[in-house]
Amino acid sequence: MDESYDVIVLGTGLKESVLSGLMSVNGKKVLHLDQNKYYGGESASLTPLKDVYTYFTKEMPGGDDSMGRGRDWNVDLIPKFLMATGKLVNILINSGVTRYLEFKSVEGSYVFKDGKVHKVPATETEALTSSLLSLGEKNSFRGFLKYIAEFNPEDLKDEVDPETTTAQELYDKFGLSKSTVDFTGHALGLYRDDSYLAQPCGKTIRRIKLYSESLARYGKSPYLYPMYGLGELPQGFARLSAIYGGTYMLDKPIDEITMEDGKVTGVKSGGEVAKCSMVIGDPKYFPDRVKKVGQVVRAICLLNHSVPNTSDAASCQIIIPQGQVNRKSDIYVLIVSHAHHVATKGHYIALVATTVETGEPEDELKPGLDLLGPIVEKFVSVSDMYEPNDDGKENQLFISSSYDATTHFETVLDDIQDIYLRATGEAIDFSKVQHDLEANKDSQ
Amino acid sequence: MEDYKYLFKVVLIGNAGVGKTCLVRRFTQGLFPPGQGATIGVDFMIKTIEIGGEKVKLQIWDTAGQERFRSITQSYYHSADALVLVFDVTSKESFNALPSWLREVEQYASPKVISVLVGNKIDLGKDREVNEEDGQSFADSHSMRFLETSAKESDNVDRLFLDIAVELTNNVRNGEIRHDDHEDIIKDTTSVSTCCKG
To answer: In terms of one coarse class, where is the protein primarily found (chain A) (predicted)?
Structure first.
């Protein structure tokens, strides 16, 4: 490790691994270190099951094999799904990282309303049969969906200006009821709170379009999820980086980040110093250079049955909009199982998460936990969310933000794009990320 | 669209410098690249062969150099149909590392994976540190097949991969391993985009 690098990346979470891959592909000499023995940091999937208990410092019940073989479990620490036509899928395809992973669609998308779980309608046909809407609501909602589907920023009609008309005004235009607005914004637009209503509606239109186009891609839901868990994602990008010459070392505690004249000069680990002109890393590696901006509470629940009212879905999402449970931010429930090789047959993993609003974070998850039925095991954690103190342009330390409570990867990709821009002065150019190594061709 | 009956993923593991990349290159390209350092830029290589009149495509994966500091990703093992565990017969150290490689295999690879132990570099006979009997008995005690090879002289290299292809093909025909029954979403899009690049 006593060498010089262009970039040293600290932590193998998804953001850091994507950035490492992009840097290597663009010809940078990259050293990628992680203090853990495993890949993925916060975005790891823990395996075997015993490691989940160890991570949460819990005693695993002995003499009981009802949970099946431990190594067949891959338990995500942070629950998220991929939008089928979202930015992460775009970068996976362009970089060729799809060749290291397999995906399956998520079976269903649900929303909690008036104490019950309903399937989210996202097409005109589904809206017609949905239990969520009264007859009158159905008609106005259909009109709204049709408008969104046909929306073209080049050809504006109906006096809607995406830059000035607010989301609330747009909803009012179609006469959407309060409860229709509630699930449209939270279950289709995937907003975490209601502050967007007063904002220009362009973003809302794009978000709902993303949802319906993602849904149209594979049918059952707009979401995809990788076989063997989300931890596969950072590993795929780490392999991409390695293919392009990136050096990988796990289990490397970082002693010090060395600075000179306010600029980074290297990273010290185990008494050795690797020189570099730029460091990228997750907030854990920079405790003095980040600020706390909030907290997320998450519960990982192991179940031995499917979740009630989801048609026995092997994977699905349930959104509990804040307005339904008198909160400021939504509660998300994500369910995965054996179908995605993350649990043994007959078992399910439900992850319940929300942004912390009170002094009793675990109680805030109750509306989500109540939907699950009997829970075999529950691991609750409260994580601080951090943001970097500065943009890194002065000291060349580019620090990612912690993973938020959102249920998909769109904000993760926003942060990656932003860090890449700050670090290189250029936007990510997907055409450069393409994988076209001669060695991959069939030699026969 | 593509002209083959079966596609199998073969994954190579073993210490740095034992000749994994050379074995793959010898088999897929008929080359022995001299004086190579750590592997950079090789993802996987493909070779199509015929078994009993049917085309079988082997996708052979290399470690991308991540074995140097024992940082191979778990996902590397996940969908492997066959594992080739390589040591260098002139390096006792690479032979002594085999148990720790097998622990990773045990933890991350499918229980149905077939694995083969390979002692490479037999052309360097005078420097031998591991004799054939020790290799064979290690393989026997872990229910693996064993072969000694020379990627340089092309000894046993074709046999190594052809035997794997035959065994996997037979396993599919006998219904012992399932094949391509999962939805391969996203990937479809990828193959379209790469074929258009020409």
So the answer is: cytoplasm
What is the Cα Rg of chain A in Å?
23
- Whether A435 has its CB under 8 Å from any CB of chain B: the answer is yes
Using CB atoms, which residue from A239, A245, A443 is nearest to B73?
A239
Q: Indicate whether B132 belongs to any domain.
A: yes
What CATH number corresponds to the domain at position B76? 3.40.50.300
Q: Are strands B114-120 and B82-88 parallel, antiparallel or unpaired?
A: parallel
What does the H/E/C string look like for chain B?
CCCCCEEEEEEEECCCCCCHHHHHHHHHHCCCCCCCCCCCCCCEEEEEEEECCEEEEEEEECCCCCCCCCCCCCHHHHCCCEEEEEEECCCHHHHHCHHHHHHHHHHHCCCCCEEEEEEECHHHHHHCCCCHHHHHHHHHHCCCEEEECECCCCECHHHHHHHHHHHHHHHHHCCCCCCCCCCCECHHHHHHHHHHHC
Number of domains in chain B: 1
Residue-range domain boundaries for chain A:
4-42+231-289+389-443, 46-79+292-385, 120-218
Residues in A closer than 8 angstroms to B185, CB to CB, are 103-105, 218, 224
Could you name the CATH architecture of A46-79+292-385? 2-Layer Sandwich (3.30)
CA angle at residue A46 from A40 to A50, to 5 degrees?
150
**Chain B partners within 8 Å of A430 (Cβ):** none
pTM over 0.95: no
pLDDT digits (tens, 9 = 90+) for A16-74: 999 999 999 999 999 999 999 999 999 999 999 999 999 999 999 887 788 999 999 99
By C-alpha distance, the chain B residue nearest A233 is: B75
CA dist., res. A196 & res. A191, Å (int)? 7
Contact A100, A77 (CB under 8 A): no
Residue B195 reports pLDDT greater than 90: no
Which pLDDT does position B98 carry in this prediction? 98
Return the CATH number of the domain spanning residue range A4-42+231-289+389-443.
Answer: 3.50.50.60
CATH number of A120-218: 1.10.405.10
* Identity of the amino acid at A415: D
